[in-house]
């Protein structure tokens, strides 16, 4: 009986240790290093938008070139530019609100990309041919912007943020028709939508609205085209959002946070409760964000960040790599022009960032990669952890601890 008690305790400790070490190991898969730079073609852009990686191919919306760059991540070359998008100028400057392409979303079960255009239409791109094969009108004369997709229902949502009353267009991918709209009266604009596969609901980033001046996350009810509930986000002006594991929603706060509130941070929210579980300080001025189930990392394009989150701080643009527990893994210096886009391969962890002065930059995982940014920010801190070491020795030590914990568990179970 005594032996039973001791071995049971041992097994409990071993399981606990193994679980904790495994969780920590998830955040030590490695840091990134630059592996390739692809020159801009045909011209160097000054206005790009969202990007995505699918089947080893990188797609980037480029308003300056009025097309979508198509880049092979296996041979690091641009294969084509998908054209046919609107380009409009105001006072000789390109107008993002009436130009395209803008947001992108892949429909993998249909082998299509939906791309928002500046004239309020959605261009449907056949990925077999890289040609625009259909247009879907959202009823707006200004840009169709950002997207999310539910493959189980075949529903796409698209934001129309530049209308007097911003709205979300709901589309059936099967017949490429508009099913309805969800309006946001009094909202200043709309940002990134995201689909939650656990609850089968669409979530939307709203930078500011009466009642939640600092912004909110709205959950859409597509059955009656209303807002089912909202979660306030403290002093954020949220922009990009993306779901990670277990209902964790990464919320990238925009530059308005620094201007309006005088500090810089981004958040991870537990959407089951609406509670903020992690603050990633000095990471703000964010636009597009991404998550990779391969690395279990979040990625935030903090291209409008300012040094130490100060209104008078110098520009400090970075790409932040954040563990799913809120730990800052790495920050890579970028630019404050085109680097508001980031895409990550869900199978390999390859990351791509567009930087105006350099080109399209491809990063791979490795132990001797790019180090923390030299942007001048203080060392960022998080409520979910600290900046961690991802050296080769650190990973070897972690593997050794995992092996020991597993051996302890096996021995305990054998004694039982």
Short description:
The protein has 416 residues and is mainly beta. It has helices at 2-26, 255-261, 392-415; strands at 31-38, 48-54, 57-62, 67-72, 77-83, 89-90, 93-94, 104-107, 112-116, 121-126, 131-137, 147-150, 155-160, 167-172, 177-183, 193-196, 201-206, 216-221, 226-232, 238-243, 248-253, 265-270, 275-281, 289-292, 297-302, 318-323, 328-333, 343-344, 351-355, 359-366. Helix content is 13%, strand content 40%.
Q: What would your notes on this structure say?
A:
The chain has 416 residues and is mainly beta. The protein is 13% helix and 40% strand. It is built from three helices and 30 strands. The chain has helices at residues 2-26, 255-261, 392-415, and strands spanning 31-38, 48-54, 57-62, 67-72, 77-83, 89-90, 93-94, 104-107, 112-116, 121-126, 131-137, 147-150, 155-160, 167-172, 177-183, 193-196, 201-206, 216-221, 226-232, 238-243, 248-253, 265-270, 275-281, 289-292, 297-302, 318-323, 328-333, 343-344, 351-355, 359-366. A four-stranded antiparallel β-sheet has the order 1-30-29-28, with no helix packed on it. The chain has a four-stranded antiparallel β-sheet with strand order 2-3-4-5, with no helix packed on it. Helix 1 runs antiparallel to helix 3. It is globular and about 45 Å long. The N and C termini lie close together (11 Å). 46% of the residues are buried. The model is unreliable at 1-23, 367-375 and 381-416 (pLDDT under 50).
């Amino acid at each position: 009986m005594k032996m039973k008690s001791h071995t049971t305790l041992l097994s409990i400790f071993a399981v606990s240790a193994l679980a904790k070490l495994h969780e920590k190991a998830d955040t030590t898969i490695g840091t990134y290093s630059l592996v390739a730079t692809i020159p801009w073609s045909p011209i160097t852009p000054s206005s790009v938008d969202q990007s995505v990686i699918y089947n080893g191919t990188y797609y980037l919306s480029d308003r300056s070139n009025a097309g979508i760059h198509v880049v092979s991540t296996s041979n690091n070359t641009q294969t084509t530019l998908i054209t046919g998008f609107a380009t409009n100028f105001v006072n000789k400057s390109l107008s993002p609100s009436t130009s395209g392409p803008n947001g992108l979303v892949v429909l993998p079960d249909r082998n299509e990309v939906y791309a928002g255009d500046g004239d309020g239409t959605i261009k449907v791109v056949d990925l077999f041919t890289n040609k625009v094969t259909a247009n879907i009108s959202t009823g707006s004369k200004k840009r169709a912007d950002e997207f999310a997709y539910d493959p189980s229902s075949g529903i796409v949502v698209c934001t129309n943020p530049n209308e007097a009353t911003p709205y979300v267009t709901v589309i059936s991918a099967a017949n490429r028709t508009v099913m309805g709209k969800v309006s946001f009266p009094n909202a200043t604009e709309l940002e990134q939508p995201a689909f939650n596969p656990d609850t089968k609901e669409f979530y939307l980033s709203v930078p500011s609205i009466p009642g939640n001046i600092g912004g909110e996350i709205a959950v859409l009810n597509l059955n009656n085209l209303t807002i089912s509930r909202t979660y306030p986000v403290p002093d954020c002006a949220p922009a990009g959002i993306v779901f990670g594991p277990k209902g964790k929603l990464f919320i990238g706060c925009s530059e308005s946070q620094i201007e309006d509130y005088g500090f810089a941070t981004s958040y991870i929210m537990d959407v089951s409760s609406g509670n903020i579980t992690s603050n990633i300080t000095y990471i703000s001025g964010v636009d597009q964000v991404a998550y990779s189930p391969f690395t279990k990392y979040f990625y935030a394009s903090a291209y409008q960040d300012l040094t130490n989150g100060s209104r008078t701080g110098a520009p400090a643009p970075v790409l932040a790599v954040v563990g799913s527990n809120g730990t800052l893994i790495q920050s890579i210096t970028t630019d404050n022009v085109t680097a508001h886009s980031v895409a990550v391969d869900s199978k390999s962890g390859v990351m791509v960032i567009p930087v105006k002065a350099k080109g399209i930059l491809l990063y791979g995982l490795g132990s001797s990669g790019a180090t923390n940014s030299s942007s001048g920010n203080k060392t960022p801190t998080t409520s979910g952890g600290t900046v961690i070491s991802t050296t080769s020795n650190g990973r070897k030590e972690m593997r050794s601890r995992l092996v020991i914990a597993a051996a302890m568990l096996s021995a305990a179970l054998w004694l039982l």
